[in-house]
Amino acid sequence: MNKTELLELLENDARLTPEEIAPMLGAGVEEVRRAIKELEENKTILKYITLVNWEKAGEEKVSALIEVRLTPQRDVGFDGLARRICRFPEVRSVRLMSGAYDLAVFVEGRSLREVSNFVATKLATIEGVVSTTTHFVLKTYKQDGVIIEDGEEDRRLMVTP
Question: How many CA atoms lie within 13 A of 95 on its CB side?
Answer without folding.
Answer: 10
